[in-house]
Automatic annotation (TrEMBL):
It comes from Lentithecium fluviatile CBS 122367. This is HET-domain-containing protein. It holds the Pfam family HET. Residues 92-112, 201-226 are annotated as: Disordered. Residues 201-211 have a biased composition (Polar residues). Residues 1-148 form the Heterokaryon incompatibility domain.
Amino acid sequence: LSHCWGNTPFSACTLTRENEAEFTTAGIPITHLTNNFREAIDVARFIGVKFIWIDSLCIMQGEGGDFASEGDMMHAVYLNSYCNIVAADSRDSSSGLFQPREGEDKVGKEEWRGRRREAVPKQVLDEGLWGDELLGAPIYERGWVFQERMLSPRLLHFTDTQIFWDCSTLSACEAFPTGIPYHLDQHASIDRHWRARLQAASRSPSTSTSKDPPFPTPIGGPKDVSPETFWRTAVQKYTSCLLTNQLDKTVAIWSVAKLVRDLLPSTETYGGGMWSTRLEEQLAWRVEASEKSRRLGDLQTAWPSWSWAS
């Protein structure tokens, strides 16, 4: 599940050292779960999946937690998932996946039906359907979700207008169940292309088994785009998102960096959010828009000032 925690505490649905014994023996009453969790379980049951991974329940939170070790392995969770369920338009834990829907925008148009002229309703859709309606949803303001979107083999996005589907070969929605039309597919096709390449990178000969599903040759998107160019674009997208804890800045994109490393020559070196090849280009980053403020001391200590991570 990809979801926004929000500012409202939901301690009853957060694993800590204090409730670990209770959660792992007595369990958690379904009535104690948030709307996000209950409705995600409904979706998992509907598609026939018996298990669900939710970060606040599967990673120990608070004092004595294990996020330092588990956070570094989140890429493996999403890479090896069956399907990522996304509560896209839920800003907190209580809004749920199934949002109240407004009436569809339609316009009447007369057409000949045989010998009769009839008014036929036509649905009107924004040309920014994928980039605005989906990727502009609250969930994609979160920095951690960038890796969840790029690494998951399949995604079901629940927005307040419709459900979107995304994988390495098809991007679709309720309005276009057989696939997004070509002229609306710019954002989705590039993500599909790189999702397939990153999935393929994770299935190296040393890690793949006969049970691993075969990932198709990446289709859609520019095949001649280099991993360095993808990384530059990925950093631009990622740094436009928000992080509750700024010290997570390089951790939340490290999962993508690991797979990019597998696509690069073995001599490539990574550090501070940058690669050794074409380092001078990467040093030319700038802050696109920001209020004047002091750089956080913790980031200055952790990363050199010439890195975007600081």
